[in-house]
Amino acid sequence: MTKQAAPHEQHRNHENRHPHPADGQARGPDAAGGRQHSELVEIRGHIIDSLLLPKVLDLVLNQGGRFDIEECRIGSRRVDPSVARIRVTAPDADTLGRILNSMIAQGATLPEAEAARFVPADIAGTFPEGFYATSNHPTQVNIGGKWVDVARQEMDVAIVLEDGQPQCMAMADVQVGMPVLVGYHGVRVKPVDRLTEPTGPSFGFMSSAVSSERPRAALIHEIAGHMRATRAAGKRVLLVGGPAIVHTGSGEYVARLIREGWITALFAGNALATHDIEQAIFGTSLGISVDKAQATEHGHEHHLRAINSVRRAGGIVPAVKSGLIGSGVMYECVRQGVPYLLTGSIRDDGPLPDVVTDMLVGQAKLRELVHDVGFCIIVATGLHGIATGNVLPSTVPVAVVDINPAIITKLHDRGTFQTIGMVTDVQAFLSGLADELAEAKA
Amino acid sequence: MTATGDTEAITLVLKRKPTVLMCPPDHYGIEYEINPWMDVKRGAVPELAQRQWARLRETIEALGAAVEIVGAVPHLPDLVFTANAGLVVGNTFVGSNFRHAVRQGESPVFDAWFAERGWNVVRPPADIYFEGAGDALFCGETLFFGYKFRSQPRGHAWLGELLGVEVLPVELADDRYYHLDTCFCPLDDSAAIIFPGAFDEYGLKAIRDRVPLLIEADATEAEAFCCNAVVIGRDVILNDISPRLADSLGGHGFRTHPLGLSEFIKSGGSAKCLTLRLDGEEAAAWAKD
């Protein structure tokens, strides 16, 4: 192979940064019922034109192993080194050991087996050069020969050491002197299995492409199953919602799900809360009567007047307590003590006093909110959904419901791995979900 | 002869005069066995070794190259094989990390010699064996890096990043050809003598892909150390050469000078092993810049 043929391989394959069982890495029981043994192997240098890379891959196959190339960075100029990180899997420990020894004899190293290296942050709000960028998969760090779980796993941040405990940390939160993990050595990522139905047989649709053709009732049944399992496990169900929930007249279903204890955390923007409160005060959403679907006189002013009233009251909680808000999603959150987070955007009217307008503060609060979330439903929202996907570990399954399949695809492509995608009208979904859970309760 | 003045050697290098580092065989002998050629019971004949070495030196000087001397040291019999001192690239000298303890005492001697003459001496990481120009040979812009019996493959990546050059690791497959310079001899930036039987298929293919003209030695020629040659311009100095290989080299404009170096072959080394080119081998593209 010549270097001239290689540039298409030059970029780091983002997908490959987040290895998962579909790559062929059997982490769990194999077909024979035993366990697969695997180890990450790194080989670097001029490994392409010397044929060292094909040679070590042949060594794996010839000795009964399998490999997945997790990363292959090809040097762009002839003098530039290349790096390949190869996940080697073998049916038993002896075979794996033989394969690894033969690879080490070719200059390969075992980055996971080495101690992780931490470098003190030198500039506040930045990571040191060469920092380890996280995935959303559960990660362990080798500290003093012991594997320690990384706390608060989230993607696209770094790992810092606080009192000996590795944990994820956003760039903006870094302070000078914080030990930040650099390089790949001593890091072990455990991809989670694709989503399976918690109480029954697994559903193929969950792992694959978005479709509007799937039976809605079956999907709703599955989502309800996750909500029940999450509640039984003492974890929260987070709803991330857009204003279409109110516009379509579905606010009452969400209010009911909150009231009945199925939705136990809420993340939204100014719009959802504003139109929900507009409906509570005026019975309209953006001036349209939610009951009659007709424009009302001066209705376009309703949302502004609603915001103004809440601002005058000093916030949503005082507005509920004073009786200004007597129904709806926000009302139920306050009444049930369900934590909610509203973060703004540049087009917001008002905003409501509860809306966080400092995005870094919003991100920090979102991290707090998702801390004990076990299941997440994202309905009719783009940016808030993506923000949530960014901070959730891959162990938390996510249902994305939208009339627009592009939103679901986008979240999935960004690495929100355990995604149930459902292309449907919001109202049909929420009413169905409320009914399903109400029936189950009865 | 003693070592020359402080900066004379590197001054010669800057003048681009072909210059070769040698060590007289004053303390040479077969005192241990670290390759299949060595046999302490057979030993080497000191007087014959001295004559063979002196003739090699005379031949090199007669071909217009200067010879620099590093003094022999008792109990370091293989110090005579200066090719293993390290790798010279411009004013950088990458010292060796010998695999065998019996040779590790050579490194301080060589490192000091180079440091005293103004070279920037670099040591490889302590956990990587690297045996200098015995295993690292330029052909054109590519540094070929033999590994397995002496140097370790991880060294290739380290060297490449240190020097900013392409380093192609090739695995050696026959322990009689334990150093790359026993089975591969770059002649100029696009030609080399090679004994294919000393490589595996991957290494051989990598070399074939990179070096346009490979003149192959057969097993008998390889055993006569015809791949372990000193190249000065178009002159090739070696232990012995078959008429067939001499014709082949002659056809490409190379004159061969068989000298007979039997006493050193008893240690697994020949003409090339006894020399280290200080201004860059004829085949090294950097030396022509």
Task: Walk me through this protein's architecture.
- The complex is a heterodimer of chains A (442) and B (289).
- Helices cover 32% and strands 20% of the residues of chain A.
- Chain A contains 14 helices and 18 strands.
- A 6-stranded parallel β-sheet of chain A has the order 15-12-11-16-17-18, sandwiched between helices.
- In chain A, helix 4 packs across helix 14, helix 6 (251-259) runs parallel beside helix 10 (329-336) and helix 7 crosses helix 8 (302-313).
- Chain A is elongated and about 80 Å long.
- In chain A, 45% of the residues are buried.
- Chain B has a single domain (8-288), classed as L-arginine/glycine Amidinotransferase, Chain A (5-stranded Propeller).
- Chain B is 27% helix and 21% strand.
- Chain B has 9 helices and 15 strands.
- In chain B, strands 2-1-15 form a 3-stranded mixed β-sheet, sandwiched between helices.
- The model of chain B is unreliable at 1-5 (pLDDT under 50).
- At the A-B interface, helix 2 of A face helix 5, strand 8 and helix 6 of B.
Keywords, separated by commas or semicolons:
heterodimer, A: 442 residues, Alpha-Beta Plaits, conserved putative lor/sdh protein from methanococcus maripaludis s2 fold, 3 domains, 18 strands, 20% strand, disordered N terminus, B: alpha/beta, L-arginine/glycine Amidinotransferase, Chain A, 9 helices, globular
